[in-house]
Specification:
This protein has eleven helices and 20 strands. The protein is α+β, with helices and mostly antiparallel strands. It binds flavin-adenine dinucleotide (FAD). InterPro entries: DHP_3-monooxygenase, DHPH_N, DhpH_subs-bd, FAD/NAD-bd_sf.
Length: 398
């Protein structure tokens, strides 16, 4: 088969690798440049299906992440007031590490054809009853072209235009909070902060939300002590129609962003205000903010899709294009790997697309409900009934 994968982030790469291993010719079309892709990357959780896919297809034994520990809730004095185990096996890494492993594997073996092209913006995707045609424009030259495929994988993310084409009015909805994020290399922190934050996952309630910290390898994949980095993410409730929201999402050149103001584009006055808020945190968190050189901010949005299979099974929605979650379980990348592994079973004749779609929908519904429950607990300290077996309310909760 000839397969076109729209979107060259993690879902696109998982699917491209699986399809290539099954002997298909795979063409990945990605709209962003390599530089732009890297400007939004921070830490992420690679769940159990990511590990399974890497074991099965890449067979690399080199560790690429750090095992997720208990999430410990601390107060402003750094005293642990509660903790809960991760929802599933976790492996804390970065988008860039995973992206580099996957992309070099996809392009590294010359068994069948795989191409990966950046700065190719996909427009229309049409079906004539036999083949699917994918129209795209080369962003650098402005030249448009069409590729015909037996199968199209729509891995074009949470704001998927392909999903909008097959499920109209399905754009993601703002959930009422934003996340500020950054990374700090280990050597930049003082000894006290380093030893406090190392190999632990912390959460501290802060103004209008909470902040998380975790420890991951360096972006070139080093796990050596002293070469790793700390990631932080500060979730803050913010009215989408407020002046603050508008200011936060307007970048240094005056451009208003819908979802993310990328690294290097945040207005200095916006970041100074956030750093001032950081002074009220406990010292290690305050230092993380102080030492962050390239923060970025994203509006959290969510969206479920009732279907993942279209055009007689020749167009599949995967990853965030299929279901976009709040980030509290860190399951988005796992969802993508789970769908890619499931597609391999379909193509090998061990399952079918009806079962694949059902499993995708069930996973997404369950993950969204669970993630929302964890999110509620993180913001308030109150534990929703659905997760009361895993977590007890914070003592300070009244
Ligand atoms: C650059 C980048 C960095 C990220 N960093 C993090 C992180 O640090 N932590 C984290 O938890 N999550 C991160 N994510 C999100 C994470 O990758 C996803 O939540 C999850 O892995 C599922 O990935 P996805 O491939 O389905 O969606 P996405 O990762 O959103 O990828 C969608 C891809 O499709 C491309 N695309 C969209 N429309 C078109 C089009 N019309 N034509 C061609 N290409 C198109 C986008 O440029 C993007 O590369 C990042 C995503 C990106 C794109």
């Amino acid at each position: 088969m000839t397969v076109v994968v729209v979107g060259g982030s993690l879902s696109g790469l998982f699917h491209a690798i699986v399809l290539k291993h099954l002997g298909h010719n795979v063409h990945v079309l990605e709209k962003s440049s390599q530089t732009l892709l890297e400007s939004q990357a921070a830490g992420l959780n690679a769940g159990p299906d990511v590990q399974k896919l890497i074991d099965l297809y890449i067979k690399s034994e080199t560790p690429y992440g750090m095992p997720g520990a208990l999430v410990e809730i601390v107060d402003r004095e750094g005293v642990v007031i509660n903790s809960f185990p991760p929802n599933a096996t976790t492996n804390l890494t970065t988008w860039r590490i995973l992206y580099n492993i996957l992309k070099s594997h996809l392009l590294g073996e010359a068994t069948t054809l795989a191409t990966y092209e950046t700065e190719k913006l996909v427009g229309e995707v049409n079906y004539d009853g036999e083949m699917v045609s994918v129209s795209y424009t080369d962003i650098k030259t402005g030249v448009s072209d069409v590729r015909h495929a037996d199968l199209v994988i729509a891995a074009d993310g949470g704001h998927s235009s392909i999903r909008e084409g097959v499920i109209p009015d399905s754009s993601p909805e703002y959930v009422g909070y934003v996340t500020w994020r950054g990374a700090v290399p280990e050597p930049l922190l003082c000894e006290a902060s380093r030893s406090f934050l190392s190999n632990r996952v912390f959460m501290l309630r802060a103004e209008h939300g909470f902040i998380l910290s975790y420890h991951v390898p360096s972006d070139n994949g080093s796990l050596k002590p002293g070469e790793c980095q700390f990631i932080w993410a500060w979730y803050e409730k913010l009215d989408e129609h407020s002046d603050d929201f508008n200011e936060n999402f307007t970048d240094i050149s005056g451009k208003r962003h819908f979802t993310t103001v990328p690294r290097g584009k945040m207005q200095p006055k916006v970041w100074e205000k956030r750093q001032e808020c950081g002074n009220s945190l406990n010292p290690p968190f305050a230092e993380l903010l102080e030492k962050t050189s390239d923060p970025f901010v994203s509006a959290i949005r969510e969206r479920q899709s009732p279907k993942s299979v279209f055009y007689d099974g020749k167009l599949l929605l995967v990853g965030d294009a299929f279901a976009l979650f709040r980030p509290h379980l860190g399951s988005s990348t796992n969802q993508a790997a789970m769908q890619a592994l499931g597609l391999a079973e379909v193509l090998e004749g061990r399952s079918d697309l009806v079962a694949w779609e059902r499993k995708s929908v069930e996973y997404a519904m369950k993950t969204a409900a669970l993630g929302n429950a964890y999110g509620e607990y993180c913001f308030t300290g109150k534990v929703p009934d659905s997760i009361s077996a895993a977590i007890r309310p914070d003592e300070s909760y009244t």
